[in-house]
Structure formats: C-alpha cells, structure tokens
C-alpha cells in the first residue's frame, strides 16, 4: 500500500501547516489544536504527527499524516478544494477556543498547506506594481510625468523603443511588458487618460469602509470575551461552537455588516416563499389536469347515453335505467362550465402539459431544498449574531454605568 508503484496515488504522506496569531496561544495549546485539526480532517483513520514550532514570531504547527489508513486497506481519498476544507476546520477549532482567524488568507504554498500567518516579503514585481499604483494615484498629466514620478520614488527608468523597464534597490530591470494586465505601458496610458478603470485589487484596498468587517470583529470579540461581565449568563443560551459556526457562515457568504445580513436574510425568505408559491401553483394545476382528464373521459363515455336521454324528452323511465351515467355526465358538464371552457382540450395536450409541469416541479424541488437550507442557515446566523451583539451591547452599557 505504501510502495512507490501506485501511479497517481504515489504519495507517502501529506503535509498541513497551521499557524496562529502572535501572542495569542501557548505552544502546548497549539499542539493540542493541531492534534484536533488532524483528527477531524483525517477522521482518525490515518496515523499522523504534530510538530509545534516557535522559531518564528507566530506559533505554528506542521502536521504530517500517512497516506495509508491505519488498517492498511486504502489510501487517502484526496478531496477537491482540500485547502479550503482544512482552513474551515482550523478556523472552527480556533473560534471554538476563543482564538483569532485570518479573514483573507494567502493562497497555500503546497497542496495541503494553509496560510494562517506566514510572513513573506513582497517580490520586486509586487513592489513595482505597488509603486506604479502609487504614482498613478498622484494623477500624472501624461506618461512622461508618470515616469518622472517613478524616478522620484527611487526607480531607474530605461527606455528602448517601445519597451520601458524599471530597476529599484539595485536589482535587475523589470519590463512593463512582463507585468501584463493593468501594468503594461498601454494599460498605464489608458489609466492616465481615464479610459481604463482602477484595478479591482487597488480599488478594493482603497474603498473598503472601516466598518465592513465590524460584524465579524464584534462576533469574534464576543467569542473571545470569556472574562467580560455577563459572559456566564450569556453562555447559558449560547456556546462557542454555535458562535464559531455563525462566524464561519458569515465569512463564507461575505456577510460583514449586520445591515447586509438582515437584507440577505429577508431575501432568502422571499426567495424561499417564491419557490414555494411556484411549487404550489404547479401542484394545483396538476391536480386540475387530473380531474379534467377524468371528467373528459366520463363525458366522452356518457355522451351518447345523455343524447338518447334528451331525445326521449327526459323520460323518467330512461333516467331510472341510466341514472349513474347521466348524473356523471351532468357533473362533468358542470365542471367544464366552472372552468369556463368553450372548447375541451385534448387528452394528449393535457398529458403534455402535465409532463412539463412534473419536470418543472422536480427542478423546483431541487431549488426548494437548497433555498430552504440557506434560509434556515442565514436566519439561524442572524439570530445568533443578534444574541451575540446584544450581549456585547449589554456589557458595554454596564461598563458605561460603572464609569
């Protein structure tokens, strides 16, 4: 099972990195949480080791687990988006223990590596793009003015035909053409003239309001406020696992402000109700079609009998002999009148409509289940957030009263 002849499964072990906010955790607790992460991710089916390092400013774990199960019957089943799965488990463990999580982690260096605090210096390319953004923020009149701003920021500029290169910190020259996207010469000229929008990354960094993450911060602080006034009373109706799940749901759905959470919760209810109405409408029409088909069949079978009854000038004797058929015929005709049907539809057309409604209803039920689950999750998150924030508000009020 562990030999190197497994083709695409030729992996002996997998490596996970887990780091914590500096100054917030002891090495002993970090090791314990690393063990918990490994157990939850492998479901206890693979042997693993957890090594806790304190050689950097942040305490971090290196977790290595065997690719073969403990019973030696199978190899590790590599799930899709495994890095995201690991991060979610790690975040929940940290939140359950009142620790901080990283809101926007860097991409992992390895297949199973999760970035939760590694420090890495920006590359020369990153620095150059940042300085280009800074120079363009100063609104140069033209490309030559832009180059002067770059020289003023410490860059050596070299022009060779259509190629423009920059060198900073004594390193080699970097050509604008190699930067691509919003940082080529043509792109920079367009940005100067206003014909090209500010890059999304730059725009985001410049326009995110301070209170954007206030909801997440408030909830995370509530989770960590074990020694705050009123915590014991609050904990009777709430627990850290619920709070952690709420915070992870808000992060996954980018619900960083309470107003947005309220708005999305209402929309979730509206969407669910809309789908329910459409399903009920399809159900109602399908029942109507079934009843209509039955009456059309009855009407067709009893048509000659009723015609003969009418020809007999509504003979009591004929009625007594065919009462059941005549009564059914009259009921069918009354049903058609209630529907205001001037012309009866064909059975084939009704069968086609029924099949279409049935297929639509099947699709709607799939949407219904997803919509119901999301509505339940977001309403639960909203309720939990309200309880958490209400607890914090009460604590603040009490502190104000003491002051």
List keywords for this structure.
403 residues; mainly alpha; BirA Bifunctional Protein, domain 2; 3 domains; three-stranded antiparallel β-sheet; 14 helices; 6 strands; elongated
Return Rg in Å.
Answer: 35 Å
Proportion of strand residues: 5-15%
Order of helices and strands: EHEEHHHEEEHHHHHHHHHH
Our count of domains comes out at: 3
How far is the first residue's CA from the last residue's CA? 67 Å
Largest beta-sheet details: 3 strands, antiparallel
Give the integer mean of the pLDDT values. 79
Shape: elongated
Strand order of the largest sheet: 1-3-2
Helix content: 55-70%
Q: Which stretches are low in confidence, meaning pLDDT under 50 for 5 or more residues running?
A: 106-120, 202-213
Tally the helices: 14
- Which class do the helix and strand fractions yield? mainly alpha
Structure summary, number of beta strands: 6
Write a structural description.
- The chain contains 14 helices and six strands.
- A hairpin with a 6-residue loop joins strand 2 and strand 3.
- The strands form two sheets. Strands 1-3-2 form a three-stranded antiparallel β-sheet, covered by helices on one side.
- It folds into three domains: 7-96, BirA Bifunctional Protein, domain 2 (2-Layer Sandwich); 124-207, no CATH class; 209-403.
- With 403 residues, it is mostly helical.
- It has helices spanning 27-42, 82-96, 124-137, 143-152, 176-179, 185-193, 200-207, 214-224, 231-235, 240-252, 258-311, 316-321, 323-338, 347-402; strands at residues 13-19, 46-53, 60-69, 156-160, 163-167, 174-175.
């Amino acid at each position: 099972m562990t030999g190197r002849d497994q083709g695409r499964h030729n992996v002996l072990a997998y490596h996970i990195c887990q780091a914590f906010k500096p100054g917030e955790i002891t090495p002993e607790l970090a090791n314990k949480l690393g063990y918990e992460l490994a157990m939850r991710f492998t479901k206890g089916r693979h042997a693993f080791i957890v090594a806790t390092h304190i050689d950097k400013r942040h305490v971090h774990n290196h977790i290595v687990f065997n690719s073969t199960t403990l019973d030696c019957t199978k190899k590790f089943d590599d799930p899709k988006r495994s890095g995201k799965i690991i991060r979610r488990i790690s975040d929940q463990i940290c939140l359950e223990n009142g620790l901080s999580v990283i809101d926007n982690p860097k991409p992992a260096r390895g297949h199973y590596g999760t970035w939760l605090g590694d420090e890495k210096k920006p590359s020369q390319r990153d620095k150059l793009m940042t300085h280009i953004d800074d120079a363009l923020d100063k609104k140069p009149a033209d490309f030559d003015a832009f180059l002067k701003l770059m020289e003023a920021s410490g860059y050596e500029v070299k022009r060779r035909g259509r190629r423009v290169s920059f060198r900073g910190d004594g390193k080699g020259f970097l050509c604008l053409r190699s930067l691509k996207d919003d940082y080529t010469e043509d792109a920079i000229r367009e940005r100067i003239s206003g014909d090209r929008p500010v890059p999304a990354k730059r725009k985001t960094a410049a326009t995110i309001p301070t209170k954007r993450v206030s909801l997440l911060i408030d909830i995370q602080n509530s989770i960590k406020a074990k020694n705050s006034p009123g915590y014991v009373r609050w904990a009777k109706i709430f627990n850290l696992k619920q709070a952690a799940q709420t915070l992870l749901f808000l992060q996954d759905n980018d619900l960083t402000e309470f107003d947005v959470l309220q708005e999305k919760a209402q929309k979730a209810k509206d969407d669910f109700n809309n789908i329910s109405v459409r399903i009920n409408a399809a159900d109602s029409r399908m029942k109507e079609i079934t009843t209509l088909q039955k009456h059309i069949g009855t009407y067709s079978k009893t048509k000659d009998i009723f015609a003969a009854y009418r020809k007999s000038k509504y003979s009591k004797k004929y009625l007594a002999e065919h009462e059941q058929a005549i009564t059914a015929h009259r009921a069918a005709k009354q049903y058609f009148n209630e529907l205001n049907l001037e012309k009866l539809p064909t059975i084939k057309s009704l069968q086609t409509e029924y099949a279409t409604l049935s297929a639509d209803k099947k699709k709607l039920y799939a949407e219904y289940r997803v919509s119901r689950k999301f509505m339940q999750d977001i309403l639960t998150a909203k309720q939990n957030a309200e309880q958490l924030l209400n607890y914090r508000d009460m604590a603040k009020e009490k502190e104000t009263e003491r002051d």
